[in-house]
UniProtKB/TrEMBL annotation:
The lineage of its organism: Bacteria, Bacillati, Actinomycetota, Actinomycetes, Micrococcales. Belongs to the class-I pyridine nucleotide-disulfide oxidoreductase family. This is Dihydrolipoyl dehydrogenase. Disulfide bonds join 47-52. FAD binds at residues 56, 119, 149-151, 312. It is an enzyme of class 1 (oxidoreductase). Residues 361-466 form the Pyridine nucleotide-disulphide oxidoreductase dimerisation domain. The gene is lpd_1. One of its GO terms (biological process) is 2-oxoglutarate metabolic process. Keywords: FAD, Flavoprotein, NAD, Nucleotide-binding, Oxidoreductase. InterPro entries: Class-I_Pyr_Nuc-Dis_Oxidored (IPR050151), FAD/NAD-bd_sf (IPR036188), FAD/NAD-binding_dom (IPR023753), FAD/NAD-linked_Rdtase_dimer_sf (IPR016156), Pyr_nuc-diS_OxRdtase (IPR001100), Pyr_nucl-diS_OxRdtase_dimer (IPR004099). One of its GO terms (molecular function) is flavin adenine dinucleotide binding. Transmembrane segments: none annotated. Its cofactor is FAD. Residues 10-324 form the FAD/NAD(P)-binding domain.
């Protein structure tokens, strides 16, 4: 085979160079295949430049300051306020100032090729890439094409909204100047995290949440986050919709469904995500452009055996870590199938994404933090599971009281009483993120409660909450 043909033909073609696409390609290459990534923006994707990394960098400085302010002895040493320019500069360092040079070098080290441009399916196992100058290049896959194009922020059809140049998560995480005031439309994770960040940095923030805060989580999570936002000075308006939006020289004017108005320097829309699948040639394989791409648990598109959809674009769980989990399974599977190796596609097998259904952890870096995994009480009951719920006040745990003066929080386990295993867990409180992995392991491993009694938490740590929760289950079930 000549050199030109090798350039155009690969075992695997990946559309999308975010962390999901990178992991699909990397696992396939590690398995012995050749791979190329097609990316029209920055290699590293949404997470690296406009989501996970910059958003958490914006939040962390205020979080660290707050912890110090809530421990006597340390609090007396805190004499100043946040340096907003330094916070932004630290954020910029985590995005490499929106340069993907380092990510491209990593691709080279991993022996993954890169095609800059917009990729579209144009035939069976065929992708045509159009670069910024209009030039085209045809790529052919010997074995598979994986779509990992991610998702976009939704701009709802509110009168006047699209015409005021609203912020989405991209603008909120990459802003170079602090707005005097910010209105946030939405009540999900992006909404509460960015409201937390900008309120802590000094903006006057209003949250407008028609359906409440963190609606898919345990109700107490949204209630505690609402109280935390109000403590930060945020005007939280729940159960009210947005009727119209207009901008003039005074700012953005928002008319709400109760007749009240909000005026702010900028408005952030955080009302959900849509699949980035509108112009990638899905119609060539009989799929609907712009829709979530349905897949089985091996991330394969039904009836199109060479096509995979991995990460946000399949709509299963819109979280970077779950997308990377899917990517590891898909990349390994593509390599195994290509090389004629055994496929492990049973539940919890190496080549499936079973955890998407039962054990997808999530941390909301709000004030207070929310860490959750598995099913809520309502979701478990709706699934027909016989459940017992155990709640405990985190502030009563010795390790928590040592960690922060006046520590406030709540923990909940949802337990399947017929199988005697945990199916869901939620923790709300200062820096509870690190508690969720233990719960994830317990759920994935289906560890019996009787065995969990022998996983003794160190004293005095916040993890002692596990002992208290298990004691609660024992008492309630006695």
């Amino acid at each position: 085979m000549d050199a030109a043909a090798k350039t155009d033909e690969y075992d695997l073609i990946v559309l999308g160079g975010g962390p999901v696409g990178e992991n699909v390609a990397d696992r396939a290459v590690q398995g012995g295949l050749t791979a190329i990534i097609v990316e029209s923006e920055l290699v590293g994707g949404e997470c690296s430049y406009w989501a996970c990394m910059p958003s958490k960098a914006l939040l962390r400085s205020a979080q660290a300051l707050r912890v110090a302010q809530h421990v006597k002895g340390a609090a007396e040493a805190v004499t100043g306020a946040l340096d907003v320019s330094a916070v932004f500069a630290r954020r910029d360092s985590f995005t490499s100032n929106w340069s993907d040079d380092g990510q491209v070098r990593w691709l080279e080290s991993a022996h993954i090729d890169l095609a800059r441009g917009h990729g579209r399916l144009t035939g069976e196992r065929e992708v045509t890439v159009t670069d910024a100058d209009g030039g085209t290049r045809v790529l052919r896959a010997r074995h598979a094409v994986a779509v990992s194009t991610g998702s976009d922020a939704v701009i709802p059809p509110i009168d006047g909204l699209a015409g005021v140049a609203p912020w989405t998560s991209r603008e909120a995480t990459s802003a170079q100047e602090l707005p005097a005031s910010l209105a946030v439309i939405g009540g999900g994770v992006v909404a509460v995290e960015m409201a937390t960040a900008y309120a802590a940095l000094g903006s006057t923030v209003t949250v407008i949440a028609r359906s409440g805060l963190l609606g898919g989580m345990e109700p107490f999570a949204g209630e505690r986050v609402a109280a935390g936002l109000e403590e930060l000075g945020v005007d939280v308006r729940l159960s009210v919709g947005t009727e119209s939006v207009r901008r003039d020289e005074e700012g953005v004017h928002i008319v709400l469904s109760d007749g009240s108005t909000v005026t702010a320097s900028e408005v952030l829309v955080a009302t959900g995500r849509s699949p980035r699948s509108g112009d990638i040639g899905l119609e060539t394989v009989g799929l609907e452009p712009g829709a979530w791409i349905r897949v089985d648990d091996t991330l394969q598109v039904p009836d199109v055996p060479w096509l995979y959809a991995v990460g946000d674009v399949n709509g299963r769980v819109l979280l970077t870590h779950q997308g990377k989990y899917q990517a590891r399974a898909a990349g390994d599977l593509i390599a195994a199938r290509a090389l004629g190796e055994a496929v492990d596609d049973a539940p919890w097998g190496r080549h499936v994404a079973t955890a998407d259904h039962a054990a997808a952890p999530q941390v909301t870096f709000s004030f207070p933090e929310v860490a959750s995994v598995g099913l809520t009480e309502k979701a478990a009951k709706d699934a027909g599971i016989s459940v017992q719920v155990v709640d405990y006040d985190l502030g009563w745990v010795a390790g928590a009281s040592l960690y922060e003066d006046g520590f406030e929080g709540q923990a909940r386990l949802v337990i399947d009483t017929e199988r005697d295993v945990i199916v869901g867990a939620t923790f709300v409180g200062p820096e509870v993120a690190e508690l969720v992995q233990t719960a994830t392991v317990a759920i994935v491993g289906e560890v019996p409660i009787s065995r969990l009694w022998h996983a003794v938490p160190a004293y005095p740590t916040v993890s002692e909450i596990w002992l208290r929760l298990l004691e609660g289950y024992g008492r309630d079930s006695a």
